[in-house]
Amino acid sequence: MIVTFGVEILIKWNKKMTKIFKIEGMSCGHCVMAVKKELVKISLEKSDVKIGEAVVDFNENLVTEKDIADAIEKAGYKVISIN
Ligand SMILES: [Cu+2]
Questions:
Q1: pTM for the full model?
Q2: pLDDT at 83
Q3: What is the residue extent of each domain of the chain?
Q4: Ligand 1 is an ion; residues with CB less than 5 A from it
Q5: 55: CA distance to ligand 1 center in Å?
Q6: Which end of the chain has a smaller Cβ tally under 10 Å, C or N?
Q7: Residue 61's pLDDT is what?
C-alpha cells in the first residue's frame, strides 16, 4: 500500500508537458531576450524562445499554462494561442 502510494506520487510528480505558446508583438532579438528573461523566473524544465513563439517543457504540478502566459505578457507581449 505504501509502495502504491509512492508510485502514484512519482507519476503525479513527473507530469511533464510540452506546449507551444504563439506570441504576438515580438519582432527582434531584444523581444526574444525580454521573454527569456521573464521565463527564467518561473520553474520550467526547458524553454526555447524564437520570434513569435516559445516552446516550453514544464511540470504541470509546479507551473501552469497561465503562469507561463502571464510571464510572457509581463515581458510585454500577447499570447495568442497555446498548443
Ligand atoms: Cu524586439
A1: 0.84
A2: 96
A3: 15-82
A4: 27-28, 30-31
A5: 18
A6: N
A7: 87
Distance 35 CA to ligand 1 centre (A): 10
What is the Cα–Cα distance from 26 to 43, expressed in whole angstroms?
23
Query: What would the grid cell of residue 61 be?
Result: 504540478
Cα(21)–Cα(24) distance, rounded to whole angstroms?
10
| Cell numbers for 41 | 523566473
Q: Ligand 1: distance of its center to the CA of 25 in Å? A: 8
pLDDT tens string 10-41: 666 678 899 999 999 999 999 999 999 999 99
Edge-to-edge strands, sheet with 53-59 = 46-50, 53-59, 16-24, 78-82
CA distance 44 to 60: 10
The pLDDT of residue 46 is: 95
CATH 3.30.70.100 correct for 15-82:
yes
